[in-house]
Amino acid sequence: MVLPGGETAAVELNSGPLLALSLLWAAVAVGLLLWYCHRSFALMCWGRQGSELEEKGAGGPGGRPAGALDAARKDPGVDHPGLPTSFVMGDSVYLQAELPKEQLSLVLRHELNHIYLRHGYFSGLRGACLLLHWWNPILWLAFRYMGRDMELACDQRTLDQLEPEQRKEYAKTLVELGGAAPVGGPAVLWGVRRSPLRVRAAVAWRPLTPVRRLTGLFCAALVFLLFAGAPAVPGE
User: Fold this and answer.
1) Is 65 helix (H, G, I), strand (E, B) or coil?
2) What CA–CA distance (Å, rounded) separates 221 from 189?
3) How far, rounded to the nearest angstrom, does the alpha carbon of residue 56 sit from its chain's CA centroid?
4) Taking the mean position of all CA atoms in its chain, how far away is CA 146?
5) pLDDT for 41-55, tens place per residue?
6) Distance, C-alpha 206 to centroid of its chain
7) Average pLDDT, rounded, for the chain
């Protein structure tokens, strides 16, 4: 085992404790996988009971009709009565049927931006990392904050597409829908339980300029190098 500062310490494990730790890891990993599959199946069942969004008349980004939600998408948008929150699963958008038309359009735009930003793939990646490294508290924190950052990034892109009056309505929608209960599983959700932070970010919105984008990439690269680097082992 390598300690901070590069010092090494010998740790001996006989077959008994090592086997017990392996079984514990496998049991928790299988349990998490079963929960994930259960939630996936529940979400798919929800989706089958919904109806296509085309009749609602909400427009997607760029003012396109809802029936052409996105040129790259294969599955239609679906609205469903009784959903606790709107979400994206795969290439499909699932919306609460009770939403007023104005909110429906904004939430739809938000969810389509999740698809554009490929957040479904990142959500699956973070779930796989947590499944394999459930014992690591840093992964639990990363799982939580990655979900928050995906919502904030989606809000930023959505706000960039809106007019000033629409941005006010968007912030109002965040306040009114922010108390929804999470549905869990592999879906990318409509920002549940993060409403105060997202409302503050929406109120303080600024366009995402190239300078801000490059600054963010530079900071991300520094953090990666911080964790990727390691002190030299003495004697090598």
Assistant:
1) strand
2) 27
3) 26
4) 7
5) 887 777 677 666 654
6) 22
7) 77
